[in-house]
Amino acid sequence: REKEFAGQLGLSRNSLREAIRALSLIRVLDVRHGDGTYVASLRPETLLESLSFAAEVAQDEAIAEQFEVRRLLEPAATALAATRISDEQLAELVSCIDRMERADTPEDLVRDDIDFHDTIVAAAGNQTLASLCRGLSSRTARVRVWRVAVEEGAVEWTHSQHRAIYRALVERDSTLALAAATVHVADVERWLRRWRGATP
Known about the structure:
With about 200 residues, this protein is mainly alpha-helical. It folds into two domains: about 1-40, Arc Repressor Mutant, subunit A (Orthogonal Bundle), CATH 1.10.10; about 60-200, GntR ligand-binding domain-like (Four Helix Bundle (Hemerythrin (Met), subunit A)), CATH 1.20.120.530. The chain is about 80% helix and about 5% strand. It has helices spanning about 1-10, 15-25, 45-60, 60-85, 85-100, 105-125, 125-140, 140-150, 155-170, 175-200; strands spanning about 30, 35-40. Helix 5 runs antiparallel to helix 6 (about 105-125) and helix 6 (about 105-125) packs across helix 8 (about 140-150).
């Protein structure tokens, strides 16, 4: 069915899946695993809520600035964590990665992504830095959900980046941890700037 539907629309199967995920995120489609995909709601208020979020992201320079600050702070916290992280915290990161890789929705993935990064900044052992990083992480969560839903390959790339950060922490390599975290945070920031630039 998926192959036929993709053919009728002139899309690849991957593009069709991304479109379904995006429409599910904005609550137009209801994806029921093992049952099918249904039109959930075309009520104006539901559609307007999602469109207003997209417009907010496209126009709000503060969101881009928050990602810029996150890129400056979180890699530093990750580098510090590489020298201080406990075995228990490393085990918690494995649990976060496992949950992210089994996540059914963009919201679930980003919730576990936040837990992953919270564990790392806690391991840095600096409460002020951890508080700043957590505040930025929560403020940028909706954008991260949107990106996972609409960008093809974002989920796989995110998993790969998390594993790279984890490996650097296991090796207690602060330079590698700094680099891996910078790539990870900067990747979302670059996507946001490209997406905003393409949005009228």
